[in-house]
Fold:
Amino acid sequence: MRRLLLALPFAALLACAGKTRAPAAAKDNPADPHAAARRPEETLTEYDLDHDGKPDVWRYTRKGPDGKDVLVRRDLDLNGDGKIDVWESYDASGNLEKQIVDLDFDGKPDVVIHYEKGQIVSKEMGFGFDGKPHAWNFYEKGRLVRKERDENGDGKVDYWEYWEGGEVDRVGIDVDGDGKVDRWESRKAAEASPGR
Structure:
């Protein structure tokens, strides 16, 4: 995680030197997975941020209506093993729409973050590092409003937290495993109760 946090700011240096491949030229190399993943209207630019001779960032752009490049997606190799660890996709205006992160470098997504108009709206997290989400956070106007978790790993939500004003308001718990709340606990009432 620390490497991820350190590497992302360096990705901002993408305006520096990079190797651009035109659409037709990139498709000529069938051994290149990035060329194969690129759509015909996209231009692929590669960046070697750690100067080891291998690309660390793959940036895909297309021409917008005004003729300027619009970022479509970006892939990052954070640990230098040649495999993609972060996948990002962007909307038609070039705003970040989705970010997928492989935290343990096993090729499976551990965190998926969704954005609308540049603001976070949801985050899925896989604590078991098995490529499956076990927890979900939901946001309104960039503020956390709800958390859900599958605590027993059966694929169903069994724990809910509702947030108001930056703190937990109430918690819902599924006791019988049917994926529905059986018991609600009010956190604000518990804090206000004397003797707690």
Observations:
- The longest helix spans residues 2-11.
